[in-house]
Amino acid sequence: MQAVKPGESIESLMTAASRALAAGDAPAARDILEAAVARDAGHVPAWLNLAAAARAMSDPAGALAALEGALRAEPRNFLALLGKASLLERQGQAKPAAVAYGVAASQAPPLERLDPGTRRALEHGRELHARHQAELEAFIRDTVGPALHADARTARRAGAFIDVTLRKRPNYRQDPVEFFWPGLPAIEFYERGLFPWMADFEAATGVIREELLALLREDADGLTPYVSYPDGLPLDQWAELNRSPRWSAFHLLLQGAPVEANCRRAPRTMEAIGLLPQPNVPGRSPAAMFSVLQPKTRIPPHTGIANTRLVVHLPLVVPPDCGFRVGSETRPWREGEAWVFDDTIEHEAWNGSDQWRTILICDVWSPLLSEQDREIVTQVMVAMDAFNGAAPQDSL
């Protein structure tokens, strides 16, 4: 047994242990390192070296115990997590090893910061974890079976549940800029059946498109930048689009009031919008606009103001290579097919084509709020704006 001097510093013990390991004397190194961790149980490098000494002595149980000591001191330590996964694999514990490799990979630094051996071990672990996840998913889907091939609504939600459970799909939550009504579910795209007005609204697509195209022919200059913040504000993701025509709007209902001149030029569109159960909050809602996204433009990820109302898109002119993501679900627009989504869940849009993409955007009450709930929401918003003495900056 290696003699350890009383009061010898941890640094001195680590140096002595490194010399012993380099000389191939793993038992001596282990004795020194056991003394080191006895003095300082939070010294992670000592635990890692103790695990290396135990592996050199063909003592996997001792190595695993040392790695557990490192993880008690630093539960997210990447090298300890990777070493534990590797030991489990060597012991033939394939499934626990695959899970452990996944945990280690979640804490991995960039590959360029790893030495070649550690990089190979990590890449191997990721491959093993990916195979495990694929086999687990196949087993789950085979077990669930017919439910995944039921009606479209059930199949879609069951598939999303499995993907979130397996960490294939992030679990996005509502994050409204201002108003959050507790208890409303975080649903990315709502089921059409909740909106009895949907079919009639979609049926007006043709006349709405005609009015839109006439407006654009006669008065393209009537479009205004949708993002328009004053100087002195932190713009964050909006810096590129602020006051830019690349994302423009032709407002019909703005901050709770009709834009009369624009409404007169789109009477059939206004009739269709009248089918919707829009909020009526002075200074805020209802809101409706033609939204124009110019070629090669992307709207960055963002969230909306309040989860008490939802947003409706009616696609009117949609060239190829356009898309929309809400949370983990990405969909292409299809002309004449409306959808309703919760814009307090992170969302983004893009137009990769060489043409303008144009949709009609409106707000509607959440169908899950009672009339009393809606009245309370309205009163709170009105009171807040009255107290602050300032109108909101946007309405969608």
What percent of the residues sit in helical stretches (DSSP H or I)?
Answer: 40-55%
The counted number of beta strands is: 11
Can you identify the CATH class of the largest domain? Mainly Beta
Name the beta content range.
5-15%
Corresponding CATH superfamily of the largest domain:
B-lactam Antibiotic, Isopenicillin N Synthase, Chain
| Poorly predicted runs of 5 or more residues | none
Assigned CATH architecture of the largest domain: Sandwich
The tally of helices reads: 13
- End-to-end distance: 73 Å
Order of helices and strands: HHHHHHHHHHEEEHHEEEEEEEEH
Rg from C-alpha positions?
30 Å
The whole-number mean of residue pLDDT values reads 90
Which oligomerization state do the chains in this entry correspond to?
A: single chain
* Large-scale geometry: elongated
Main beta-sheet strand count, sense and barrel state: 7 strands, antiparallel
